[in-house]
Structure prediction request, 357 residues.
Amino acid sequence: MAEGADKTEKATPKRREEARKKGQIAKSADLSGSVILLAGLFTLGLTGPSTAQRLGDSLTQALQAGAGKDPVTITTVGDLMLGSGKTVGLCLAPVVGASALAAIVVSLAQVGIKPKPGALKPDPKRLNPATGFKNIFGKSSLVELGKNLLKVGIVATVVLSALLPHLTDYAAMVGMTPFQLGGAMAANVKALAMRACFAYLLIGVVDYAYQRYRHEKSLRMDKQEVKEEMKQQDLPAEVRGAIRRRQREAARARMMAAVPDADVIVTNPTHYSVALKYDGHSAAPEVVAKGQDLIALRIREIAAEHDVPIVPDPPLARSLHATVEVGQQIPEELFQAVAQILAYVYRVAGRRRLASA
Prediction:
């Protein structure tokens, strides 16, 4: 809570640009879907009569060809299917084209014209089974499920409020000719579909506003971050690079200094090393150091010098290295695996104390 409360400043243009390069942009799938659906329904309403006429003529020609004297061969069947497919394609082309154009327009309206290469860059964290399990069964998935049920309920309520008062009118349609019944039902279905679509559009607008709010909140900065960024903007690129390099070196030195106080080092055993510490008061163990290849080797060397237990566990080491940053507590889905390792380390340490006594 304290960390989130400190981030009270709006994101700077640089922070926004960095987030955009990573593909972090506010976008609502509900707004896009509602606009596409509305464009398709509107186009279908405009082209509906001509589409019905064209499909009727195609069906009539097919029946007449079937009743003709020409023998049924592969050629005649192929010509019939080709003609029917062409007719269906011409009927669907306006709706598909309008929907595709609406998809492009609403996407550009939300995210702009600039490309987002970061969204297409492979991210190993997305392949982590633990993270995927958390996304499916975690708190956020329950929130999304609740939102989807609420959206379905709103749309269903709008449709039923328009449908139920006219049930007696539908009963009066008994005895109509097929053409009269078809025209009346088409008008009613169109009215219901437009009501549902506008309700979905309203949900999409609200969801887009919520996504913008969440995005802006995630980009917030604290005052120190804003000051540091303003300082770096006034410096040459070479100086900024040197400062970032020294900051990385200082962060690495602080990380290595925390290794002797760790409770255990979880390794791959050669490619990854993750140092864990649990003080007994925090909610979960904390990652105090982690590294790959040469840094991982240095972590193991320091641990060996200070008698910190080193436990090989490749799956856990990879998961910790990919999902947890230095200074953060481990996620809930890794509690059991880490608890087993800590229990093993504590047992071994207890036996050594007894043996030395």
Summary: Residues 2-115+132-219 form one domain. The first strand starts at residue 264 and ends at 267. Strands lie at 264-267, 272-277, 286-292, 310-312. The chain has two domains: 2-115+132-219, 257-356.
